[in-house]
Amino acid sequence: HPAVRLDRVAKRYRNTHTYAVHDVTLDIAPGEFFSLLGPSGCGKTTLLRMTGGFVDPTEGSVLLDGEDVTGLPPNKRNVNTVFQSYALFDHLSLADNVAFGLKRSGVPRAEIRRRVGDMLDLVQLGELAGRKPTTLSGGQRQRVALARALVNRPQVLLLDEPLAALDLKLRRRMQVELKQIQREVGITFVFVTHDQDEALTMSDRLAVMNEGRIEQCGTPEDVYERP
Ligand code: ADP
Ligand code: ADP
After folding, report:
1. What is the pLDDT of residues 95-116, one digit of tens each?
2. Is the ipTM beyond the 0.85 threshold?
3. By mean pLDDT, which of 36-45, 80-89, 145-154, 217-226 is the weakest?
4. Phi and psi (nearest 5°) for 33?
5. Is the pTM of this model over 0.90?
6. Which of 2, 158, 212, 216 has its CA at a distance of 20 to 30 angstroms from the CA of residue 91?
7. Site residues for ligand 1, CB cut-off 6 Å
8. What pLDDT sits at residue 46?
9. What angle do CA 153, 9, 18 make, to 5 degrees?
10. pLDDT greater than 60 at residue 227
11. Is the CB of 45 under 6 A from ligand 2?
């Protein structure tokens, strides 16, 4: 099965007259780093939200690992999401923020400590594990959100411009790290960006969107070597 299959999905938001997404059909393979690229307002986030269950399609269906999940809420899907705006628990330390989901699923304490430690090291926040999110910069908070989403090892990770708030240097480093993480853990990444270079350097395949439709889809070479 594809990790994600969007079958003729379309979305028209309530009280709007035009479709934000028109008739999109797309398969994303297990373990693939797949980007949705296109200008603001072209429907990338809407497509991602339909995959995650935050928005229901007006038409069509969403399948995850061969299972039709159309209409199921986010917590009934084996996906995790990192949003543009991180939502962390301000009263918990970074480590407890990252550990939150693991504790709820009953993972043994020693394993939680190890996985949280490894993940915080990976996003270069190991030294700050005991700090509260309010004492961090925006970029640091976004890295905590990333660590928190990855530590659960979801089958699919949805990322909505997760690096947009980071300064250029850190952004480059995180691009490389994200790619490494994705290869190591074998999780399918669906990555929304309006940055063409970012999509080119990171993606196994990408879809170029415009006005709610996919205009091109393929490897970076397929998409950019075409006249
Ligand atoms: P992108 O992520 O590519 O910037 P979006 O999916 O956010 O695009 O938006 C696609 C279109 O849907 C835009 O015209 C946007 O204004 C509209 N839209 C997005 N969210 C909503 C919403 N909650 N209600 C109404 N229209 C929306
Ligand atoms: P994006 O998700 O593409 O960054 P924005 O930052 O423009 O979108 O929008 C912020 C929030 O407002 C999102 O939750 C989006 O769904 C919503 N939104 C966007 N366009 C509209 C719209 N035309 N009507 C209502 N809500 C919208």
Report:
1. 999 999 899 889 999 999 999 9
2. no
3. 80-89
4. -100, 105
5. no
6. 158
7. 13, 16, 20, 38, 40-46
8. 97
9. 125
10. no
11. yes
Going by C-alpha positions, the residue among 203, 114, 188 that lies closest to residue 151 is: 114
Task: Assess contact for 224 and 200: CB atoms under 8 A.
Answer: yes
Which residue puts its alpha carbon closest to atom 23 of ligand 1?
13
C-alpha 29/C-alpha 5 separation (Å) is 9
> Residue range 55-66: average pLDDT?
97
Q: What is the pLDDT of residues 18-54, one digit of tens each?
A: 999 999 999 999 999 999 999 999 999 999 999 999 9
Bridge partners of residue 156, in order along the sequence = 79, 188
Atom of ligand 2 nearest to the CA of 46: 16
Calpha distance 123→176 (Å, rounded): 11
Q: What is the DSSP letter of 73?
A: -
Q: How far is the CA of 35 from the centre of ligand 2 (A)?
A: 20
Beta-carbon contacts of 116 under 8 Å, excluding residues fewer than 6 positions away, are 95, 98, 99, 102, 129, 147, 151
Q: Calculate how far, in angstroms, residue 41's C-alpha sits from the geometric centre of ligand 2.
A: 8
